[in-house]
Amino acid sequence: MEIRKAVITDFENIKSMMLKALRSDPNAFSVNYEEYASCSNYWWQNYLSDYLAGLYSHMYFAQENEIIVGMAGLNFSRKIKQQHSVDFVWFFVDQEHRGKGIGRKILEHIHTVLKEREEIVKIALSVVSTQTKAIELYKKFGYSVSGNQRRHIKSGNDYLDLIIMEKHLRP
After folding, report:
1. Inter-residue contact 96 to 27 (CB < 8 Å)
2. What's the CATH code of the domain at 66?
3. Where is the N-acetyltransferase domain (predicted)?
4. What are phi and psi of 7, to 5 degrees?
5. Phi, psi at 145, each rounded to 5°
6. How many distinct structural domains can be found in the chain?
């Protein structure tokens, strides 16, 4: 298995993995499948342009035998006062490939990439409270809870909390 950074030709790969993530884990993200599936290609091109250009956003894929089985994104701030912090987004491992350590390998790769960038001090993420396995994995990697947005996500008739977590890479 390899972890690789998405490139400009990965438009369809990113789009299809995001839609797959939203369809297979409807409570894992703050947006829903129907919302994104109905968007035009023009909307997708605008939404994914930063990930594809790799300037302020990066997307990483986990691949096994040329098949993408997981992904994770990083969003870097354009704001001078926030350039030390990065947001970890769109973390997803295909359900058929869970339990194989792919999520751990993606996180290891992300941390290696970020440790090479001396200006990055902190990684932040948000996770829906029902995603207990993801929360456990984040804690194993040294993330701690820094906040909780109660009833932030509505799923059907239920309201779910959004947990804010962060990890400091440097003092």
Report:
1. no
2. 3.40.630.30
3. 1-170
4. -125, 175
5. -75, 130
6. 1
- Predicted local confidence at residue 171, as pLDDT: 82
Instruction: Using alpha carbons, list the distances in angstroms from residue 158 to 1, 21, 145.
Output: 37, 20, 22
CA 148 to chain centre: 18
pLDDT in tens, 132-144: 999 999 999 999 9
**C-alpha dist (Å) from residue 171 to 43, 77, 84, 116, 167:** 39, 19, 12, 15, 11
N- to C-terminal Cα distance for the chain? 33
Q: What is the CA radius of gyration of the chain?
A: 16
Give the helix/strand (H/E) hosting 140: helix 132-140
Convert the pLDDT of each residue in 66-103 to its tens digit.
999 999 999 999 999 999 999 999 999 999 999 999 99
* Angular region, 73: left φ>0, alpha ψ -120 to 50, beta rest: beta
Summarize the confidence of residues 134-156 as an average pLDDT: 96
What is the domain extent for residue 105?
2-168
**Phi and psi based region of residue 156 (left: phi greater than 0; alpha: psi -120 to 50; beta: remaining):** left
